[in-house]
Design a protein that fits this description.
alpha/beta; five-stranded mixed sheet; 12 helices; 2 domains; TIM Barrel; about 40% helix; eight-stranded parallel β-barrel; about 400 residues; Sulfite Reductase Hemoprotein, domain 1
């Protein structure tokens, strides 16, 4: 059900300002809007229009599109002409495309950390002003999208092990910049693959800026059903406290199943509204944890989704060990957002880069990487068991 009409399962909201995104309005007591993101190549107009329409039929209030190139930007007028959806565009590292895309969308999402990588001599404030001017001129909202794996380098490491603190500081800084520029039509998101950190960061931000609407999500939540469980943990703790105005359930699924993100989001909202809270295993997060990014247009090989499923199935024997494996589908999330995992796979068009922590172990074909990954899992288990025995602790 689109946000234009009432949604019966909307819990009470914090009294934030309202932000209009096309025909949808979030914040200020409006129903929680449910979002998803296209997974087609944005330059493929027919496929992208078809998926936007499918997501709308599934109940999406807002649909996000990634724009990574001039070719993607050039496709937007035709996409806009084929749909009436409330469209958000994700610029990531391409903030300079804002004037090209703004006439054809309703919201622009930018990542404060990625602003650093281009025109490094230009002050961050000037880059934000560039985005705000384009948005204001073309009747767009902005989303300040802070991600755990791509925090502004100026903030990284300044808070010790408090990665949630880094995210909150970055979000607050950008809110202050936008406020001083006189641009107030913005929302914020603070995302991590760990639902506990998502809860922590969003509660802290909401305490400092209760006026700012929040977009909630657990980034790279992974394959269902675990991806839905991780997201539910965060949403139950935040939405039940009135924190959160729009949501996305980020699942690793094939293109033709993207509607599952909407269905999962609607179900969580309805459960919370009716007081139906699901119990969560006490050891969730202290056992095998496979995180994987949602399929989107940046995925360079759709075999990534099948690979994530194969990793989950192969690694099932290590279920009781506290090992995190990250499977990322593109160059944007892959290199940086696998660093904090015990083992990481980021998928290029023809090969998979295998990492142990921040160290790259090599590149392997899609059909050969699993055997090497299993060797690394076995090595990690052996190391962890040896550490436990050396400390006298009980085995997991």
């Amino acid at each position: 059900m689109p946000a234009d009409g009432p949604h019966p399962a909307s819990p009470p909201r914090n009294p934030t300002k309202s932000v209009r995104i096309g025909r949808a309005t979030i914040g200020a007591g409006h129903p929680v809007a449910v979002q998803s993101m296209t997974a087609t190549k944005t330059s493929d107009v027919a496929a992208t229009v078809r998926q936007i329409l499918e997501l709308e039929r599934a109940g999406a209030d807002i649909v996000r599109i990634a724009v990574d190139s001039e070719k993607d930007a050039a496709a937007l007028p035709a996409i806009r002409g084929g749909v009436a959806a409330n469209l958000s565009v994700d610029l990531q590292e391409n903030y300079r495309l804002a004037p090209r895309v703004a006439p054809h969308v309703d919201k622009i999402r930018y990542n404060p950390g990625h602003l650093y990588h281009h025109e490094r001599s230009k002050p961050v404030r000037d880059k934000v002003a560039f985005l705000a001017e384009a948005a204001a001129r073309h009747d767009c909202a902005l989303r300040v999208g802070v991600n755990c794996g791509s925090v502004d380098p100026d903030k990284a490491g300044r808070f010790g092990d408090d990665s949630a603190g880094e995210m909150v500081a970055s979000a607050l800084e950008h809110c202050d910049i936008l406020d001083r520029l006189g641009f107030t039509r913005y929302v914020v998101s603070l995302k991590d693959s760990d639902p506990v950190k998502v809860i922590d960061a969003n509660r802290r931000f909401a305490a400092s800026r209760p006026d700012v609407p929040l977009h909630l999500g657990v980034t790279e939540a992974g394959l269902p059903p675990d991806g839905v469980i991780k997201t539910r943990i965060a949403f139950e703790q935040l939405l039940s406290r009135g924190i959160g105005d729009t949501i996305r359930v980020s699942l690793t699924v094939p293109n033709d199943r993207k509607g599952e993100e909407i269905a999962a989001g609607r179900q969580i909202l309805e459960d919370i509204a009716h007081g139906r809270f699901r119990s969560v295993p006490g050891n969730f997060g202290r056992r095998l944890n496979i995180i994987s990014c949602p399929s989107c247009s940046r995925v360079e090989n759709q075999a990534f989704v099948a690979l994530a499923e194969r990793v989950r199935d192969m690694a099932a024997y290590a279920q009781q060990h506290a090992i995190t494996i990250a499977v990322m589908g593109c160059r944007v999330n892959g290199p940086g957002e696998t660093d904090d995992a015990d083992l990481g796979l980021w998928c290029a068009p023809t090969h998979v880069n295998l990492k142990r922590g921040a160290d790259t172990l090599g590149s392997f074909g899609y059909d050969e990487v699993l055997s090497r990954l299993k060797q690394e899992i076995d090595r990690l288990i052996t190391d962890k068991m040896a550490q436990l025995e050396g400390s006298g602790a009980a085995h997991p």
